[in-house]
C-alpha cells in the first residue's frame, strides 16, 4: 500500500502506474477516512493498493499504459 497525493489529473481504479522502479495497477483506493473510492482528483490524498513492491518515500508517480510502465520499470532496475 502506498499513500499518494495527486498534484494534477485524476487517478482511477484499474489504471496502471509507475513509482520510481516499481509499477502496478490500482486495485483499490481509500480516502483519508478509510472509505473505498473509485477515483481521486487533485489535492486528494489516497492510499493505493496494487504496487508490485515498495517505492522510496517522496517518489513521483506517473500513470501510463501497463506495457509502458513495465518497460520503464525494467530499464530503471538495470
Explain the overall architecture.
The structure is a single chain. The chain has 1 helix and 8 strands, in the order E-E-E-E-E-E-E-E-H. With 78 residues, it is of the alpha+beta class. Strands 1, 3, 4, 5, 7 and 8 form a 6-stranded antiparallel beta sheet that branches. It has a two-stranded antiparallel ribbon with strand order 2-6. A hairpin with a 5-residue loop joins strand 4 and strand 5. The N and C termini lie far apart (24 Å).
Question: What is the secondary structure topology, with strand pairs?
Answer:
Layout: E1 2-5, E2 11-12, E3 16-19, E4 22-30, E5 36-37, E6 39-40, E7 45-51, E8 61-63, H1 66-77
Antiparallel strand pairs: 1-7, 2-6, 3-4, 3-8, 4-5, 4-7
Major β-sheet, in short? 6 strands, antiparallel
The 3D shape can be described as globular
Mean pLDDT: 76
Contiguous low-pLDDT stretches (5 residues minimum) are none
- Structural class designation: alpha+beta
